[in-house]
User: Fold this.
Amino acid sequence: MTPSFRIRPAAPGDASAVSLLMLEAIGDIAYTISGTEDLPDTLSALEELFRLPNCRLSFRSVLVCEAEGGGIAGFALSYPGAEAAALDEPLLRRLRSRGLPTSGLVPEARPGEYYLDSLSVDEAYRGSGLGTRLIEAFERRAAELGEARAMLLVDRANVKARALYERLGYREDGSVELSGHAYDRMAKPVG
Assistant:
């Protein structure tokens, strides 16, 4: 029997499960934005930042896909591009307090865009359509907030993800480099 799922807003108690998926989704960027160098410290920092109410990585910016029985099967983190600078402030303060450079934290979204910062589906549920459901929920949220465009980044090496985004109507809209990796911006009108 196929398990059932529901997408809901994240809560602070989801920090541990979402942080593991977030680390998988953003890779090296997690070390850059948290100012950490090892896995335990990075996971701890992601959990701490997730619990903050006004941070790029906040639970308030996250939708989770909850599997039947309560486990987190996936997540999508998104926010308006117009709020990016304010949401980055806790990350910048964290880096400055550790005497670390802030140049690795660059704006990824522009005003007028609703940005899908990161998305991941637990390995046990991949191929079940949960990624698509999370993207559709992200797009609905963008439209509800009155944003004109949904935007995301895709690693140039991630051909499978790019194919999914193109199938869902996203088109290339420039590029950006983050933590030494090249990403293509992809956007789609919503609303």
Q: What stands out?
A: The domain at 5-189 is CATH 3.40.630.30 (Aminopeptidase). The longest helix spans residues 130-144. The first strand starts at residue 5 and ends at 9.
